[in-house]
Amino acid sequence: MALSSPTVARWELAIRLRQRLDLLGIKAPALCKEVGITPAYWSHVMTGRSVPTEEKLNQVLGVLEFPAEERPEVLELRAAAKESGRWARFSALFGDELMRLYGLEHGSHSIREYEGVLVPAMLQTPDYIRALMNSPYGVRSAVEADQYVEARLMRQERLTGPEPLRFTAMLTESVLLHRPWGGKIQVDQLRHIQALMEKYPETVDVRVIPFDAPEYAALSGTVYLIDFASSRLPTVAWYENALFGQVVEDAVQVRNLNYVYEQVFAAMPSRGESFARIDKTARELASRL
To answer: What are the residue boundaries of the HTH cro/C1-type domain, all occurrences included (predicted)?
Structure first.
């Protein structure tokens, strides 16, 4: 189930205004002149960096001839978009792209993820997170590490809270065996994934791509596909590798990622078979401690 998110509200507001502009064939400069705003300000509204005042939005709705029955919805979106959101206090820690990802994630209905190296962030234990943050590839200070751990655990509340989103993860088998932080942390991590699968059978689904599967190399990096409850909002993606991460909105790119993901997922072992593989790996690793 989706929760309220200022990031999602700003995005939907921009989409609805843009669709109306296109429908009526009105150009942005003409709208700006009619309403009395600058093109730069309108650009900020369209990219979610600014939220129009209620007075200006009502003027825009008038110029765009919004149907009367839709106007209350649009004004509600504006009100939601004005909220600071629970991620605002982390704005100095994360860049704009990550802040946007977390906002989209918080307001989503479902997330599908592919991960080929590390355990997905939504499934990580506190010890796994802290070990990652204190690694050579993590953050630079203990204070930042604490904040990163706190932020990641906040993200995970979307799995365990009263209105959980649906989370599906495809992991390569190497993710299960990879133990850069030591065997005990990895065993505890695998047991944690099993516990989530058992406690949330309707909303948490984890599949393991076997080493010998032809689909093993079909995707690379970290891939998110984020879906929303509103039929007006398209699927968006997040792609991340060792160098960068970005939100992907381009319809063709998202469609291609979605196609590959679904093709690989269709060939995966069942949820039960994947659970058994996780259990077997955890027992084998535990026997070596």
So the answer is: 16-71
Q: Which domains are present in the chain? A: 6-82 (1.10.260.40), 90-286 (3.30.870)
By C-alpha distance, which of 115, 110, 109 is closest to 207? 115
Instruction: Compute φ and ψ for 141, nearest 5 degrees.
Output: -140, 160
* pLDDT tens track for 143-155: 788 899 999 999 9
3-state secondary structure 84-113: CCCCHHHCCCCCHHHHHHHHHHHCCCEEEE
3-class secondary structure, 37: coil
- Rounded to two decimals, the pTM is 0.92
Burial readout 168-177 (b: 16 or more C-beta within 10 A, e: otherwise) = bbbbbbebbe
Q: How many other β-carbons are positioned within 10 Å of the β-carbon of residue 125?
A: 20
94 CB-contact burial (10 Å; exposed 0-12 / middle 13-18 / buried 19+): middle
Neighbours of 288 (CB within 10 A): 8
* Element spanning 274, H or E: helix 271-286
| CB contact at 8 A, 239 and 245 | yes
- Residue 46: how many CB atoms within 10 A of its CB? 17
- How far are the Cα atoms of 117, 287, 289 from residue 175, in angstroms, in the given order? 5, 18, 18
